[in-house]
Amino acid sequence: MNKNQNPKPVYDLEERTFQFAKRVRLFVKTLPNTLANVEDSRQLIKASGSVGANYREANESLGKKDFLMRIRISRKEAKESEYWLRLINETNELKNTDEGLQLIQEASELKKIFSAIVEKCK
Predict the structure, then answer these.
(1) Is pLDDT above 90 for 7?
(2) Which CATH number fits domain 13-121: 3.40.630.20, 1.10.1900.20, 1.10.10.10, 1.20.1440.60?
(3) Predicted confidence (pLDDT) per residue in 65-79, tens digit
């Protein structure tokens, strides 16, 4: 099995968001070195890392309001990650298109998870 693939879903959200950011970084290393890919990758790396970083901050929050704000930021960053991944996927002839599509799916699932958390906290 390729080290970039997850053999089974991770239910620990801190670990899952970490694995997402890690897989994004490994994916970015495989992209053709074009100006657009360099710029898009920079945005993608920041957004994908922020998903998990803000989730960890939410778990150490000072109260419900702080928790919700950080979860909303995680959701926003997951949504942004999905955008950059889709843009990269649709503007390149990738050798690892499957990994790009799996990352788009993971970003979408993370976004939905964070949306559900926000709804439950209302």
Answers:
(1) no
(2) 1.20.1440.60
(3) 999 999 999 999 999
CA distance 78 to 55: 11
Spatial distance between the Cα atoms of 92 and 94, rounded to a whole number of angstroms = 6
The C-alpha R_g of the chain, in whole angstroms, comes to 15
Cα distance between residue 41 and residue 29, in whole Å: 9
**Confidence band of 98 (pLDDT split at 50, 70, 90):** very high
Name the token pair of 34.
């074009």
The dihedral through the CA atoms of 15, 38, 5, 109 has a sign that is positive
Q: What is the pLDDT of residue 2?
A: 47
d(CA 41, CA 51) in angstroms, rounded, equals 15
